């Protein structure tokens, strides 16, 4: 065996998190194309559509960055090249608050943002890596991110920082989501849930929204695999959510708060449809 080239391995992993790599993977796995054929089709698509796509690209909101990250439903140990990727939009710079942090030092800024960025990615169904944070967000070396993570864990050992490298089994991610839903069904407010689980309000809202839609589809007698497909979530997550429904039916308190979640979800869905006709659960 040769000596591993860590630098090349890092570049290879990053290369698999691009739109080009995602397109080639879809052509290969979805249409049965060979790698050569997939690359050839990609070249033609770029040649024909690239000039129009460049002029039609929307302007990103200030302070935000969009990148591809590995889906949170992908198991540990799976090659990055074979993993499903999700596009996530992350809020790197929030405004004057972050300007004050940067004035103190870049390290203070990074350590204040890393936990929120990881939670924000997870709320959109993906897990970041140290390399994502280093090369795609903060433009520093991975060892710098490792030092930041060590400092954060030393400061608060209970802090939840969901990175792909630290979530060895998909179970812990599901447990966090399951815990958030259970707390809501017990009547806890969003503020209380954020305090208990160390998750952002946006993450909590997205988890509860997905759970509410899961229940609504289950009540329409849809099969769990259909629900997973429609919501673009892993089967294991959907199964864990569906397992909560019988508990709610047996517990009057949980049943009441479930009805409240469904009521709020229905009213929120109508507002979203009136505004844009879309959703991002």
What features would you describe in this structure?
This protein has helices at 6-15, 19-31, 35-56, 96-104, 106-123, 130-138, 142-155, 170-185, 190-197, 201-219, 224-231, 235-242, 244-250, 252-275; strands at residues 64-71, 85-91, 126-127. With 281 residues, the protein is mainly alpha-helical. Helix 4 packs across helix 5 (106-123), helix 8 runs parallel beside helix 12 and helix 13 (244-250) packs across helix 14. The radius of gyration is 21 Å and the shape is globular. The termini are far apart.
Topology:
Blueprint (H helix, E strand, L loop, with lengths): L5 H10 L3 H13 L3 H22 L7 E8 L13 E7 L4 H9 L1 H18 L2 E2 L2 H9 L3 H14 L14 H16 L4 H8 L3 H19 L4 H8 L3 H8 L1 H7 L1 H24 L6
Antiparallel strand pairs: 1-2, 1-3
Helix pairs in contact: 2-3, 4-5, 5-7, 5-10, 6-7, 8-10, 8-12, 10-11, 10-14, 11-12, 13-14
């Amino acid at each position: 065996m040769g000596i591993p080239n860590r630098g090349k391995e890092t570049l290879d992993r990053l290369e698999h998190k691009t739109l080009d790599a995602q397109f080639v993977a879809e052509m290969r796995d979805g249409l049965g194309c060979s790698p050569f054929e997939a690359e050839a089709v990609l070249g033609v698509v770029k040649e024909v559509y690239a000039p129009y796509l460049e002029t039609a690209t929307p302007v990103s909101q200030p302070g935000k960055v969009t990148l591809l990250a590995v889906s949170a439903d992908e198991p540990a140990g799976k090659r990055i090249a074979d993993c499903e990727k999700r596009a996530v939009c992350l809020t790197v710079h929030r405004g004057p608050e972050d300007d004050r942090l940067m004035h103190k030092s870049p390290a203070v800024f990074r350590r204040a943002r890393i936990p929120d960025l990881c939670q924000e990615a997870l709320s959109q169904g993906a897990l970041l890596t140290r390399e994502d944070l280093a090369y795609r967000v903060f433009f520093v070396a991975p060892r710098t991110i490792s030092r930041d993570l060590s400092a954060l864990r030393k400061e608060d050992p209970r802090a939840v920082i969901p990175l792909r490298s630290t979530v060895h089994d998909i179970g812990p991610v599901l447990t966090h989501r399951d815990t958030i839903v259970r707390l809501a069904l017990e009547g806890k407010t969003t503020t209380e849930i954020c305090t208990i689980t160390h998750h952002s309000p946006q993450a909590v809202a997205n988890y509860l929204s997905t759970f509410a839609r899961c229940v609504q589809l289950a009540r329409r007698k849809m099969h769990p695999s259909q629900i997973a497909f429609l919501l673009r979530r892993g089967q294991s997550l959907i199964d864990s959510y569906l397992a909560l429904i019988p508990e709610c039916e047996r517990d009057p308190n949980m049943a009441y708060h479930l009805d409240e979640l469904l009521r709020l979800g229905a009213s929120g869905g109508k507002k979203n449809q009136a505004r844009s006709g879309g959703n991002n659960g």
